[in-house]
Design brief:
Length: 123
């Protein structure tokens, strides 16, 4: 017997989504493997300066062939993947065969980063 007071199953807001973005299993399995067949990678990055400070917030990700995925990140994010020289550095990478996906969120002082930037690249 059920009087309706039990736990409701089904959609729960706030759960799910893509997880780690470009480094999620689904993206690397589909897009990453497809791009690795063509020896290519795509990357996207956004940089915004934190007001009244010298710090920047960078959100970036790339997916594609293993050797080109890291090179597809913005040049101001170079060397920041899994680095510990920033206030916040959240990095995720996933490699499946010849494909790799990377996602990074970095908050801290980053020399060479512009005030505001949108970076899109396909290699």
């Amino acid at each position: 017997m059920s009087d309706g007071s039990g736990r409701r199953r089904g959609f729960r807001p706030g759960r799910g989504g893509c997880g780690a973005g470009c480094a999620s299993l689904l993206v690397v399995l589909t897009v990453g493997l497809l791009l690795s067949l063509f020896n290519a990678a795509v990357g996207i990055g956004v940089s915004i300066q934190v007001p009244f400070s010298e710090s920047n917030l960078i959100v970036a990700g790339s997916v594609g062939q293993k050797q080109k995925a890291v090179a597809s990140l913005p040049n101001y994010a170079e060397g920041r993947l899994a680095d510990n020289r920033n206030f916040i550095n959240y990095t995720t990478t996933l490699t499946i065969g010849p494909a790799e996906g990377t996602t990074m969120i970095v908050l801290g002082k980053q020399p060479g980063a512009p005030i505001a930037d949108l970076h899109l690249v396909a290699r």
